Amino acid sequence: MLAHRIVASVLQPGEMAVDATVGNGHDTLFLARQVGPQGHVYGFDVQEEALARTRRRLEEAGLHERVTLLRMGHEHMAKAVPVAWHGRIGAVMFNLGYLPGGSDRSCITRPQTTVPALEAALRLLRPGGVLTVVAYRGHPGGAEEAEAVRRWAETLDPDRFVAARYAFCNRHRPAPELFVVVRGVAG
């Protein structure tokens, strides 16, 4: 996955990271491996089903002690991450939409909470830290949320952040988009 490659190029062992939407735990597990035994990951989801799946995945890998899972919306991440780590997070990952294989496909991420969560994530990032957002357009509300993320990314101060959008053209229809924001070293 491209988002994993980008984060792996930035996130160092011993750092802290955030999975803003744990879902089935794939990004959470990836982040836990990246930060190593001295690092830590905070994972957020509003669904207990998602947290249970992620917890099981982490336990099977023997990495559950590296992760704090929180049943709360991603828009509250700045309140949950210790203040001492604000401005020091190496990576924040978002995977928008619904819980794949979940029992409730009507429980989806929405622009009203995602955009404030993205703002919070920027405040948490260290200089050189990276934020990734995979946005899916194929479910009800997905296109509107992807557009909200695009509009948000376009407003970022180019002297403080580098923002890019990758559109996959040979994958799912409609194709997901990957947004990547890097906090500038001076910003």
TrEMBL record:
It comes from the Bacteria. CDD domains: AdoMet_MTases. Transmembrane segments: none annotated. The keyword Methyltransferase applies. InterPro entries: MnmM_MeTrfase (IPR010719), SAM-dependent_MTases_sf (IPR029063). GO terms for molecular function: methyltransferase activity. Signal peptide: none annotated. PANTHER family: S-ADENOSYL-L-METHIONINE-DEPENDENT METHYLTRANSFERASES SUPERFAMILY PROTEIN, TRNA (MNM(5)S(2)U34)-METHYLTRANSFERASE, CHLOROPLASTIC. This is Putative rRNA methylase. The lineage of its organism: Bacteria, Pseudomonadati, Rhodothermota, Rhodothermia, Rhodothermales.
